[in-house]
Amino acid sequence: MAAAMVTTAVRQTPTIDEPVYVVTATDYLREHRLRYNAEHPPLGKLLIAAGVAVAAPHYDPGTPGTQGDAGRHLLYESGNDPWRLMLWARLPVIALTLLCGLVVFAFARDLAGPVAALAALALYAFSPDVIAHGSLATLDLPMTAFLLTSVWLLWRARLRPRPYVPLAGAALGAAVATKMSALPAVPLLMLLAAWSVWHARAGSGRRRRTLSALSAGSTVLLVALAVVWAAYLVVDPRLGFDPAEAVPALAGKRALVSGLLPLPPAFGAGMRMQFAMEYYPWGGFLFGRVYTGSLWYYLPVALLVKTPLGLLALGAAGAVTLAAVPRLRPAAPYLLLPPALLLAVAMTGARDFGTRYALFVPVSLAVAGGCAVVWRRRWARALAGVLVLWVAVSSLRAFPYYLPYANEAFGGPARTHELLHDSNVDWGQDLGALADRLRERYPGERVWLVYKGAGVPSYYGIHAADPRTVPPDRVRGLLAVSDSAVAKAQGRLAELIRTSRPVGEVGHSITLYRR
Q1: At 146, is the pLDDT very low, low, confident or very high (cuts 50, 70, 90)?
Q2: 319-348: b or e for each residue (b if 16 or more CB lie within 10 Å)?
Q3: What is the tens place of the pLDDT at every residue in 250-298?
Q4: Calculated CA dihedral for residues 263, 350, 365, 405, nearest 10 degrees
Q5: Is 232 in contact with 254 (CB distance < 8 Å)?
Q6: Which DSSP state fits 326?
Q7: What is the rounded CA–CA span in Å between residue 172 and residue 190?
Q8: Are 16 and 67 in contact (CB under 8 A)?
Q9: pLDDT for the residue 500
Q10: What is the mean pLDDT of residues 365-377?
């Protein structure tokens, strides 16, 4: 898994979100201020900052413009090597992703023994979505890792509540301090903490058990809040907040919620920014359909496309096993309720951008899938072994194109762009690979480019014009179009694509046409 992630990290150019996170991490290190990317709490970017500190980039703290402008300036206009800087920024996330694998292993071993632990670890280590997002300097996988750790510690608290309840609160706080999308899990994990302590105090009187359970839930909440505060205090002990971009004004229940939470002012401002994004009419794409807004079934369908078939099968079998096997039944609420809740909440969101909003699902499926090996019948274990092997083969066949992965039922990575878009397929990661392809196969040709990403084409030696800015009859030569732009093409771009001949693709994320 480490080899796959490092190889992917080395070859991919910055995805759309990464420059913002990297410049924010750099600003934390150099200026100790809360200026960029207020819509996400600081902890994940502090993790990225550990790698940025080693890279030691040149940085101009007075860069004007938006956070996107600042990220572009840091990577491409400050004398830094973006390949080197991005690799160092990604390495801490890679390390955390590997550590999360140990949590998957330990959780499954606690539930069903060492064979289940090895199966769960294999399912996790070969999961294309986990490899794809674990190799990027983004926040989705770190939040998932911290949240899974909290759930595992709460399960352990059933036997030893005193050490594990506060640790679970710290892990939950780390998740919330990384992404606000972890917030819906807070009340559920408080209930699970109370239930764990209620179980642990089975020999005590009812009154004492009730007080202990309530204390456990409160402890998880208080420790989680303390961790969130600590993340902001590490960046700026004065808790100053000078955002580079305006914080939208909101009214109604969402404004009330963002103002009442006992968290730093920057966190409340970030919540208002997130809520404001929910009102924006984002565009979506699913199975060839272009639409405005969101579809409630988008994420379940996208997960069906992008999760290996063996993982889907074993995860479903594991869920049945948790419900059917008496000794595993107590674990069902811990392992099944958090991903179900987070998926249900994510399905109500306004941004149909990718399965990265539901990474907790394949990670939880890996743990549950490992539990499917507890059945004593020989054919059941053999079938589980075959399914694990199928996941491994499917993942290895996709190497190194994990971001556009689709399972065999939907045609594999080469067909994903026909079904999904954005971070499911094309997040701007293959600009460098496109430059290599143009140098090797199309030297000296006239190139036209429609690129969706955060990279700067000219830095990689791509000197191309936008075909949408000239009459169609002047667009002759090679036309390169990001697949997300192809999926939602309208007007002039749609006409250009219709009258062009496909001649190749790059990384299953950029299509080449001849005109």
Answers
A1: very high
A2: bebbeebeebeebbbbbbbbbebbbeebbe
A3: 777 777 777 788 999 999 999 999 999 988 999 999 999 999 999 999 9
A4: -120
A5: no
A6: T
A7: 10
A8: no
A9: 95
A10: 91
Q: Which tens digit of pLDDT belongs to each residue from 1-45?
A: 999 999 999 999 999 999 999 999 999 999 999 999 999 999 999
Percent of the chain with pLDDT strictly greater than 90: 91
* Span 306-356, pLDDT tens digits: 999 999 999 999 999 999 999 999 999 999 999 999 999 999 999 999 999
Neighbours of 62 (CB within 10 A): 7
CA separation for the pair 62, 71 (Å, rounded): 12
- Cite the beta strand spans of 217-308 per DSSP E: 283-286, 289-292
Between CA 409 and CA 106 the distance in angstroms is 31
Distances (CA, A) of 77 to 82, 458, 463, 503: 10, 12, 17, 33
What three-state secondary structure class fits 479?
strand
Distance CA 456, CA 86 (A): 14
Q: Which position has the token pair 């919620």? A: 257
Distance CA 120, CA 206 (A): 37
Dist CA 7 CA 384 (whole Å): 29
Segment 473-505, tens digit of pLDDT? 999 999 999 999 999 999 999 999 999 999 999
Cα angle: 505, vertex 510, 515; to 5 degrees: 70
Closest CA to 202 of 332, 330, 337: 330
Strand 501-506 with 510-514, pairing: antiparallel
CA distance 406 to 418: 11
222, 235 Cβ separation under 8 angstroms: no
Contacting residues for 477 by C-beta, under 8 A, at least 6 apart: 445, 446, 447, 448, 514, 515
